[in-house]
Amino acid sequence: METYSASAVTRNYDRLVGVYDLLASLWSGGAIRAARMWCARQTRSKTRVLVVGAGTGDDAALCCANGADVHLVDASQKMLAESVLRCKSSGGTDPVAIDDDFRNVQFTQPMDDILVPFFLNIFCSAELPQILRHLKECNASDGRILISDFSPPAHFFASKSLMELWHGIPMAFFFLFTGNAWHGVHDLPHALEEAGLTIVQRQKFRIFGIGPRWIESLIVEIKSDR
């Protein structure tokens, strides 16, 4: 396993490493994990896979078990260490661990697949174009970006208000404990369109398996110039 040194850390999840999975499960009824694992199952053996904001790494471990060449990026040293442990316990390939802010990371070879598990939600809408642009720069021209995140808010006022409340409570928690940006629910399909990216597949997940479909996974490709 290779490990790259870190530069200045922002939006750090070190204090939450022991409770992050539990909080995600309690708040979404398993929908957050289901969306992450759905993306991981789309990866293939012997391809270069980047996991941005690797977290505790169940999805990254599945990519390793599938035989992918996995690179993990996380600004939290403790989250990264936990993700590496899970990857190594998968019995598959060993990951490359990069302890840094993703915005500082450059690759000499592009990635075939980039997994983005709820990473975009730590940024405000004004920062999204920069992050999406860097994801494109790290991706092969025929590669894919696999995003798990919150669905865009509904147009119906009552549904939108309820979703914003559900999203806002943990947003306040992470704002206080990690320094995440404070923002409403992103309209990711619109942001992706503006960034020159096309959604080619979409899978929605119900909260607690029976509730509203407020979590989704997206497979995204760079728009063709043709």
Structural notes for this entry:
This protein has 226 residues and is an alpha/beta fold. The protein has a single domain (3-222), classed as 3-Layer(aba) Sandwich (Rossmann fold), CATH 3.40.50.150. Helix content is 36%, strand content 23%. The protein has an eight-stranded mixed β-sheet, with helices on both faces. α4 (77-89) links the parallel β3 and β4 (96-99). Mean pLDDT is 92; it is low at 1-9.
Concise structural overview:
This protein is of the alpha/beta class. 36% of the residues lie in helices and 23% in strands. The protein contains 7 helices and 8 strands.
Write the layout of secondary structure elements.
Layout: E1 3-4, H1 20-28, H2 31-41, E2 48-52, H3 58-65, E3 69-74, H4 77-89, E4 96-99, E5 111-117, H5 128-138, E6 139-150, H6 157-178, H7 188-194, E7 197-205, E8 215-222
Parallel strand pairs: 1-4, 2-3, 2-5, 3-4, 5-6
Antiparallel strand pairs: 6-8, 7-8
